[in-house]
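Researcher: Here's a chain I'd like modeled. Treat it as a single chain, no partners, no ligands.
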Amino acid sequence: MLFEVDTPTPGAGGRVTLWADGAQIGAGTLPHTVPVAFSSDAGMDIRRDNGLVVDRAYEDKAPYAFTGTVRRVVFDLKPVGLDDEVALHQHASLNAVAHGAGA
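Model: Modeled as a single isolated chain. Structure tokens:
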């Protein structure tokens, strides 16, 4: 899966492209994402999902082990420019202050 964010801000949307065996098999857009709600390792499980279930009715089926063969996993982490990284940290800092003021 390739996710190309629209803007480097928490919760920003973007374009999603799904690939299998080197061929594009799907594409679409996400209007927004969920900012700061997952751990840094969420989504990095290979052959099983170690996270929480979406619905407790499926809890007995976790961790959803994949029974096929994983032949290759590629992580392509494109670099973020310094200006984008600074803007992201400023946005997070301002939201933290605002959240504290509203508590």
